[in-house]
Amino acid sequence: MATATAAALALSTPANGGGVNTVGLISSTPDASPGYTLFTCLVYNDAYLVNVEGQIVHSWRSPYAFSLAPYLKENGNMLKYSLRAPMQEFDWDGNLLWEYHYESASVTMHHDIAILPNGNILVIADETKSNAEAIATGRRPIFSSAVDALHVVELMPVGSNSATIVWEWHIWDHLIQDFDTNQANFGVVADHPERVDINFGELNYQDWLHANSIDYNESYDQIILSIRTFSEFWVIDHSTTTAEAAGHTGGNSGKGGDLLYRWGNPLAYDRGAQADQKLFKQHDAQWIPQGKPGAGNILVFNNGAGRPGGHSSVEEIAPPVDGNGWYTNPLPGAAFGPAAPVWSYTATPPGSLFSFTLSGADRQPNGNTLICDGDAGTFLEVTMNGELVWHYVSPVNGSGPMPQGSHLVESSTFRADRYPPDFPAFAGRDLTPNGTLEWDASDAFQFQQVGRTASEVNLSWASLPESTYQVQYALSLETPGWTTISTQTAIGTRTHFTDTDPLRINQAVSCYRVLESP
Prior knowledge:
Blueprint: E1 2-5, E2 24-28, E3 36-40, E4 47-51, E5 56-60, E6 67-72, E7 78-82, E8 87-90, E9 96-100, E10 107-115, E11 121-129, H1 131-135, E12 147-158, E13 162-170, E14 175-176, E15 196-197, E16 211-217, E17 222-227, E18 232-237, H2 242-245, E19 261-263, E20 283-287, E21 298-302, E22 313-317, E23 343-346, E24 360-363, E25 369-373, E26 378-382, E27 388-393, E28 396-397, E29 400-401, E30 416-419, E31 447-452, E32 457-462, E33 468-473, E34 483-489, E35 494-499, E36 512-516
Parallel strand pairs: 1-23, 14-15
Antiparallel strand pairs: 2-27, 3-4, 3-30, 4-5, 6-7, 7-8, 8-9, 10-11, 11-12, 12-13, 16-17, 17-18, 18-19, 20-21, 21-22, 22-23, 24-25, 25-26, 26-27, 28-29, 31-32, 32-35, 33-34, 33-36
């Protein structure tokens, strides 16, 4: 196994003219992979695209906070899911094209989605099973809670606010247990690693499995799921029909909806001891895409919650799979291989990278890995040797972008992904840098964000709570005659104004200004 540890780096050009940056770009070297990093703040609405210089080049606004991972499509649209809110797709200019909430009284979507090549969307969701239903499936009756049973649906978007389920898979069809001999799923857990033991895991926790990421492999037509409470990831067959996905035969694998591969914690299928556990409450298990170093391997952020020493790491796994997507089954009683990652990154000192929740890792075309320390809202790019070549701290919390020099709380980020400069979404787009998200506290009234659609202009600026501001407009900057078009009283440290006047919205943004009222 190749192991990388962090190398020290002190490279910072303060954006505020002095001192050391606390947010935004902290350091960068020429070895950083070029491109644009897309991220949100967990407790704020907007999605941001920043370049490697730490400058904002584009953003999208959504009415929903609790933002999880946004995804940029090749056509320039952005698909975003927020917790307890609909999925939304916006075009490049911020116009809402589609939204849909896959939810009912007993079903809740959560955590992550994946866009398929045909435009359909894979969604992680839970369906609530009562304690009585769980006991009838062999769950030990000492546990009194209901159970959130994981399932995955493939949605085909329809119109502007609907979708059709075209495929689905349910964990409830693939359980095993060694407690109740009267149930059809009774068996020896260790003899069936392709199924899931309903009596393993955090059984007093309703969200028993807590799937937190999903990814798709087009070459194999397979899905990977990160299961936090089991400290392992699973691979299932997507080539099945829905009927086959409910059984144990069919699909390219011939195994229906049973697990094809699992890795991280052999205790979960009774083929190991605690010392054999490799993953600890991990996030963001994903295949490294074709064209990137390590293509076909699996990259995962290993949170390290419960690991001796308490630190996070990133692991790259080379699964025992052939070119047809067939996995080598372990010998009876043995765990799925490999015995160790082919590459791993740990910070120096190890505890300096520890995110109990959230987080992810994204392999770059040059072999670097972009790491999202989700709890801290910090992005680190490291080489295969562990050299830190890019360091960015999100300046966004629940109030929006904050000033340079801030020491933020609640700036958590679910995940960050970088798109290369030749990504098709950027063809013909204006990616001119528009300053930084963080702002200079000595200039409280500059516009910090500008957004434009066909029907409105959105402006925001740093504000002092309870202060009053005048938004003014000038028809011509050559002979400006400023007219107050709105008076705003600030509630927080960022104030927004939306102009829908058709006579103004097509003019240059420089025709607007904001002044504090006397």
